[in-house]
Amino acid sequence: MRARDLLAAFPTITIDTPVSQAARLLAEQDLPGLIVIDEHGRPASILPGTQVLRLAVPGYCQDDPALARVIDEEHADHFLDALAGRTVREALPPRPRELPVTDPDATVLELAALMARTHSPLVAVMDEGRLLGAVTLQALLDRVTSL
Amino acid sequence: MRARDLLAAFPTITIDTPVSQAARLLAEQDLPGLIVIDEHGRPASILPGTQVLRLAVPGYCQDDPALARVIDEEHADHFLDALAGRTVREALPPRPRELPVTDPDATVLELAALMARTHSPLVAVMDEGRLLGAVTLQALLDRVTSL
After folding, report:
1. pLDDT digits (tens, 9 = 90+) for A4-62
2. Would you tell me how many other CB atoms lie within 10 Å of the CB of residue A121?
3. What is the distance in angstroms between the Cα of A74 and the nearest Cα belonging to chain B?
4. C-alpha atoms less than 13 angstroms from C-alpha of A66 in its C-beta half-sphere
5. Do A110 and B68 contact (CB within 8 A), yes or no?
6. Is B14 exposed, middle or buried (0-12, 13-18, 19+ CB in 10 A)?
7. What's the predicted TM-score (pTM) here?
8. Are B23 and A73 a contacting pair at CB < 8 A?
9. Which parts of the sequence belong to the CBS domain (chains A, B) (predicted)?
10. Beta-strand relationship, B33-37 and B43-48
């Protein structure tokens, strides 16, 4: 079994997508994360769901989640709205991290190692510079546990 | 909206659960991660799905996922079987990390900050030393994006 047998089409966003729209896409399509593509259609970043949240949560709250409690419930409920038109570009971490990207020949062990190493529940699959889709942790586990 | 409004019962494992069984639970119930409880029923560790994989992937493959390709496809497909009876206890990282645990009064902003900070798509909710359940990233996003 290879990446090509496990991959599925996966929605992408760009660095100009508003963070609030990215969060909605994640919620509505029940995705484990998002692939951010650059102007050439290649992955610029691959964000696990928790890192999409990171784009949306004020830094001081991440440094000390207890500080988030000083924000009253009404305002906390609408923290996504506070982002207004902020885009993924403005919220991405400055230094690029190792991207979980592989080719269609990767075995399930290679996919699992990439997910474990990069803490990413999805791996993008590229062939000759083209994004074919992604393999999710769920798809991988479904297959290896049913063999 | 508080953690108590978002939490749901969540299956738990113990440090004596075999890693292969943990992987099957994750796959079968489509969970974002697992809560490992100690003998007092308190969270000893909270593992995102990618970290459950980490328990199952040989260290040299995590250091360099390309090395995983030297394992042939047939053996790679069955990497979970190679674990045989290895338990979570033997595979957990030695130093405990900050656990994403909160109380029923936590606001959605606090929950989001905890998930972002600890890279965990689930937060355990405790009340007076008792585990009530967990809030998942998906449950949180579903609610905040539909407000």
Report:
1. 999 999 999 998 998 888 989 999 998 999 999 988 888 989 988 888 888 888 888 88
2. 27
3. 8
4. 0
5. yes
6. middle
7. 0.86
8. no
9. 1-65, 94-147
10. antiparallel
Are the beta carbons of B145 and A2 separated by less than 8 Å?
no
Domains within chain A, CATH numbers bracketed: 3-145 (3.10.580.10)
Burial class (CB in 10 A: 0-12, 13-18, 19+), A22: buried
Burial (CB count within 10 angstroms: exposed 0-12, middle 13-18, buried 19+), residue A39: exposed
Look at A137 and B66 and tell me if their CB atoms are within 8 Å.
no
Model ipTM? 0.85
Q: Residue B31 carries which side chain, given as an amino acid letter?
A: L
Q: Which strands, in side-by-side order, build the sheet including A130-136?
A: A101-102, A122-127, A130-136
Residues A30, B116: C-beta atoms closer than 8 Å: no
Mutation target for A interface from B79, B109, B138: give the one with most A CBs within 10 A: B109
Q: Which of A24, A105, A113 sits opposite B62 (nearest CB)?
A: A113
